[in-house]
């Protein structure tokens, strides 16, 4: 087990999974099962019309980047994601803080918050499109509606669950209400927010892409939708590939930021 | 009484007001349901700590020792009775007191240095001066090289040292300590006890030190107060500890005077410990 968990070995194994999947896909979509073996006619296990081929998908992706068309759409999606995250997180922090510090406000709004959060956000997309048009803001709004609740609940919890001993200590050290806010509640709330950073950034992206998919003129979601509309499976897969790599890159950036912001926290040992 | 210890005088005859004085203090918590009778933790507690005196409060687990300390800190308002700090009735938090808690009380998101300097910074001391004085205090508690670390990177004993520096840097007139070394192992407790005595001997603040460990109480204090098992626990006895200072916690325990005093106090405490133990067992 020790050998298997070392980093290069792990990486090699991860690579192996990708190679295996792409290999199966490649063989299934380019090699015809000869006539008479299973059926009277020869056929593909994975019909390229429905599944495209790995080579075609990589070629298309390469071409999109080489000609530069994809950059514009990537930029739009990134902008929407960033705006959705920033606005949603800011709103979540402010409202979460307010609710946690004012018990009566939290009690009054509690059922409405639960109702709003229980609503599947996709049904809001047409409303947002109607209100905000087909530009980026309807997508941002959809992302905000997702990010807000994640951050809100985490900040609310973070402020409410400050250790009473730490709080008493701060009071005995002479902190005023404002200083408590700055030195105790605020850092505590932020840590809870950062602990949900991966989830909330992910949801900001989901909001942007779903919004684009449902109606827009730019962005990765739009590209995938367009390709689907003309049965261009290669285009759909290429869009998904770009999206997947994009998500991994954003996640890596978030990890770096998270590590910098939470140096003070005990590290959870990796693995079990 | 003669010898090293004995029942303390009922009323110390001093002109100066006590650093902290609790008079007929009763502390009650509301029952879990509104119609339930309130739970009385402490009843009729009278306690005086003179300026410069090291007082230890000993009692069985759950007897309300910490509650009494919280009343002196102003974190709890007594249901009856008076709390006076240097003669003045206590209103709100006790601004003259520093409090060392039993549980983890450091700010986990601040470095060790920032944890120590925060008390000065919120009091308006410039950041540069606060940092310099904090570094000095870290050296005094033996953590000069640990300023940039975060609390979770330290051992339990080191965190208590930081806590001590955090409280003492503000130079409180009264030091309240709630089983501060309780979670530590025996050796570390001794080392911490000696560190505490060293620091205390420099400017002799009034100390209220709560513990369930009679050995620790006698080794540290000028006077030991015993509380009965709760609920509605009272103060049932007090003894003066006339062991010579400066003391070494480990060595003072080996002296015959220590043993004699220990035997005497334990005679009174044992019954209460058994009572308290039976109650917690019954409740569990």
UniProtKB/TrEMBL annotation, chain A:
SUPFAM superfamilies: MetI-like. It comes from Azorhizobium oxalatiphilum. It is found in: Cell membrane. It is a multi-pass membrane protein. Residues 74-258 form the ABC transmembrane type-1 domain. The lineage of its organism: Bacteria, Pseudomonadati, Pseudomonadota, Alphaproteobacteria, Hyphomicrobiales. GO terms for biological process: transmembrane transport. This is ABC transporter permease. The chain crosses the membrane at residues 9-27, 70-100, 112-134, 203-224, 236-257. The keyword Transmembrane helix applies.
UniProtKB/TrEMBL annotation, chain B:
Transmembrane segments: none annotated. InterPro entries: AAA+_ATPase, ABC_transporter-like_ATP-bd, ABC_transporter-like_CS, ABC_transporter_ATP-bind, P-loop_NTPase. GO terms for molecular function: ATP binding; ATP hydrolysis activity. PROSITE patterns: ABC_TRANSPORTER_1 (PS00211), ABC_TRANSPORTER_2 (PS50893). The keyword Secreted does not apply. The keyword Transport applies. Residues 20-254 form the ABC transporter domain. It holds the Pfam family ABC_tran. Keywords: ATP-binding, Nucleotide-binding, Transport. Belongs to the ABC transporter superfamily. This is ABC transporter ATP-binding protein. It comes from Azorhizobium oxalatiphilum.
């Amino acid at each position: 087990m020790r050998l298997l968990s070392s980093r290069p070995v792990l990486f090699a194994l991860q690579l192996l999974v990708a190679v295996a999947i792409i290999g199966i896909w490649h063989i299934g979509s380019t090699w015809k099962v000869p006539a008479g073996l299973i059926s009277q006619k020869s056929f593909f296990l994975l019909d390229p019309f429905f599944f495209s081929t790995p080579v075609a998908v990589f070629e298309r992706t390469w071409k999109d980047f080489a000609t530069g068309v994809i950059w514009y759409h990537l930029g739009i999606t990134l902008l929407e994601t960033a705006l959705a995250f920033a606005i949603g997180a800011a709103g979540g922090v402010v409202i979460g803080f307010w609710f946690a510090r004012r018990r009566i406000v939290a009690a009054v709004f509690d059922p409405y918050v639960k109702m709003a959060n229980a609503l599947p956000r996709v049904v809001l997309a047409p409303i947002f499109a109607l209100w905000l048009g087909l530009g980026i803001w309807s997508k941002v709004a959809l992302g905000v509606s997702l990010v807000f609740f994640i951050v809100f609940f985490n900040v609310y919890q973070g402020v409410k669950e400050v250790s009473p001993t730490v709080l008493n200590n701060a009071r005995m050290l002479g902190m005023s209400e404002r200083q408590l806010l700055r030195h105790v509640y605020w850092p505590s709330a932020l840590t809870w927010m950062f602990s949900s950073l991966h989830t909330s950034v992910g949801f900001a992206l989901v909001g942007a892409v779903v919004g684009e998919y449902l109606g827009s003129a730019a962005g990765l979601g739009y590209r995938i939708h367009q390709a689907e509309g003309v049965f261009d499976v290669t285009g759909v897969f290429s869009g998904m590939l770009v999206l997947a790599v994009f998500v991994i890159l954003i996640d890596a950036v978030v990890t770096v930021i998270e590590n910098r912001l939470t140096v003070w926290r005990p590290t959870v040992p990796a693995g079990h | 009484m003669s010898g090293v210890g004995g029942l303390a005088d009922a009323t110390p005859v001093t002109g100066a007001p006590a650093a902290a004085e609790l008079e007929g203090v009763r502390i009650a918590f509301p029952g879990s349901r509104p119609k339930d009778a309130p739970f009385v933790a402490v009843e009729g507690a009278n306690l005086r700590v003179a300026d410069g005196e090291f007082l230890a409060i000993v009692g069985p687990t759950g007897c309300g020792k910490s509650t009494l300390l919280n009343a002196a800190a102003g974190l709890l308002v007594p249901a009856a009775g008076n709390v006076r700090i240097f003669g003045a009735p206590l209103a709100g938090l006790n601004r003259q007191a520093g409090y060392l808690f039993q549980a983890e009380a450091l700010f986990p998101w601040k470095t060790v240095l920032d944890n120590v300097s925060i008390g000065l910074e919120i009091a308006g001391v410039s950041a540069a001066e606060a940092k310099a004085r904090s570094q000095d205090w870290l050296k005094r508690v033996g953590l000069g090289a640990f300023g940039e670390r975060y609390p979770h990177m330290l051992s339990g004993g080191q965190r208590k040292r930081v806590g001590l520096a955090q409280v003492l840097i503000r130079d409180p007139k009264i030091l309240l300590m709630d089983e501060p070394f309780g979670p530590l192992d025996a050796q570390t407790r001794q080392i911490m006890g000696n560190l505490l005595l060293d620091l205390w001997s420099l400017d002799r603040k009034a100390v209220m030190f709560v513990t369930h460990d009679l050995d620790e109480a006698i080794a540290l204090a000028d006077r030991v107060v015993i509380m009965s098992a709760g609920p509605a626990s009272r103060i049932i006895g007090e003894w003066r500890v006339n062991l010579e200072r400066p003391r070494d916690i480990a060595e003072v325990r080996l002296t015959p005077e220590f043993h004699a005093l220990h035997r005497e106090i334990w005679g009174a405490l044992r019954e209460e410990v058994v009572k308290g133990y039976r109650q917690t067992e019954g409740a569990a």
